[in-house]
Specification:
Elements: E1 17-19, H1 21-27, E2 32-37, H2 48-60, E3 70-74, H3 78-90, E4 93-99, H4 104-112, E5 116-120, H5 132-142, E6 146-148, H6 156-175, E7 190-194, H7 199-210, E8 218-224, E9 267-271, H8 273-287, H9 293-308, H10 310-316, E10 322-327, H11 338-345, H12 350-360
Parallel strand pairs: 2-10, 3-4, 3-6, 4-5, 7-8, 7-10, 8-9
Antiparallel strand pairs: 1-2
Helix pairs in contact: 2-3, 2-6, 6-7, 8-9, 9-10
The structure holds 4'-deoxy-4'-aminopyridoxal-5'-phosphate.
Length: about 375
């Protein structure tokens, strides 16, 4: 029922699960392809959930002291935006350390909500003092009442997904009846997500498996070429250490909150920037979903898995199997990025373009 919320934190999460039926048709899938669309969370990404959970837990256990504490966090931007939102509401100062490659749009959103942002070299190794993680540590040591909530280690990161993201997905699937038009197995058969800290994939996997909803659910991890999170290790040899443009997924170390084992993650796929951008464009054009780059990676990785693995080919041909892909953030974060502008400006609807050219007597662009 609609009700007045105390503040913006009441509008974190509760995101829709949306059928990607046009893409399903284009790919000739028999299974259902469903997008968990996190851009509708009020801060615009899946990371609102953990920001809220980490701040609330830290207030409860006395780590954060109102009027005193200064929140410092190393992020690729979205956790920072969630923290800036929570801290704007609660009255804490925020300092975000952000690698250079992350978008200006994220920095502007952070600053608009009152956070201070310090850029760090993208290529700095995670454990060097220059990296965003290294600098956050130094700042926390030198800033009086500086507190790092530490999304890489904080159990409230995966827990937020185990308690919210996962149950929301399960609830949506369980409560939607199977029909002739939309047959459903009644359970989540596959869950695919990109991995940054790994909090999302670990927490959702626990929600699906530990609750007994579907102990044999296939959990698919998506990792960019250049990152080292995928298993087996041999997947990471091509392009190891190479720079990639996609933001928010992939690392040069294993974040402790990522349960990088077969019990949690059944299979891994590597994705390139280019295939991620193409797939993000497909989500926009075929489904009208204004998602970010990592959402493209998850769709691209899932398509590859459908084509290249035996299990993927089986699921693809299984009517009623529910394949849920996590679409972590939205276009707001990337609207001025070259990859997006190039993709958008080169998107030419041929039929209308031809008509317009005839009417105007020139190319409409
Ligand atoms: N996509 C985007 C755009 C993100 O910002 C993040 C978080 N860094 C992720 C995916 C991955 O989420 P997680 O940290 O839970 O693995």
């Amino acid at each position: 029922m609609p009700q007045i919320l105390d503040n913006a934190l009441g509008a974190v999460g509760n995101t829709p699960l949306i059928r990607l039926d046009n893409i399903k048709r284009e790919l000739g899938l028999k299974c259902n392809l469903l997008g968990k669309v996190e851009v509708t969370s009020i801060g615009g990404s899946v990371k609102d959930r953990i920001a809220k959970a980490m701040v609330e837990a830290a207030e409860k256990d006395g780590t954060l002291i109102p009027g005193k504490s200064i929140v410092i966090e190393a992020t690729s931007g979205n956790t920072g935006i969630g923290l800036a939102m929570a801290c704007a509401i609660k009255g804490y100062s925020v300092v975000i350390t952000l690698p250079e490659k992350m978008s200006l749009e994220k920095e502007a959103a952070l600053r608009a909500m009152g956070a201070e942002v310090v850029r760090t070299p993208t290529e700095a190794a995670w454990d060097s003092p220059e990296s965003n993680i290294g600098l956050a540590k130094r700042l926390a040591a030198e800033i009086p009442h500086g507190v790092i909530l530490d999304q890489y280690r904080n159990p409230n990161n995966p827990l937020a997904h185990e308690l919210t993201t996962g149950p929301e997905i399960i609830e949506a699937v369980v409560s939607t009846p199977s029909t002739t038009a939309h047959p459903s197995s009644g359970k989540v058969d596959v869950f695919a997500a990109g991995t940054g800290t790994g909090g999302t994939i670990t927490g959702v996997s626990r929600a699906i498996k530990r609750t007994g909803h579907n102990k044999s659910c296939i959990i698919l991890g998506v990792d960019p070429v250049g990152s080292i999170l995928a298993l087996p290790e041999s997947l990471n040899t091509t392009g190891s250490g190479e720079a990639y443009i996609i933001e928010g997924i992939g690392y040069d170390f294993y974040p402790p909150v990522l349960a990088r084992d077969e019990e949690h993650i059944s299979s891994w796929v590597k994705t390139s920037d280019d295939e991620s951008f193409v797939a993000a464009g497909r989500l926009m054009r075929s489904e009208g979903l204004m998602v970010g780059g990592s959402s493209g990676s998850v769709l691209a990785g899932t398509i590859k898995w459908f084509e290249e693995s035996e299990e993927g080919r089986r699921i693809k041909e299984t009517e009623g199997a529910n394949v849920v892909i996590l679409l972590a953030d939205g276009l707001r974060n990337y609207i001025g990025k070259k990859w997006f502008i190039d993709m958008a400006m080169n998107s030419k609807p041929p039929q209308v373009r031809e008509l317009l050219t005839k009417i105007l007597g020139r190319d409409p662009s």
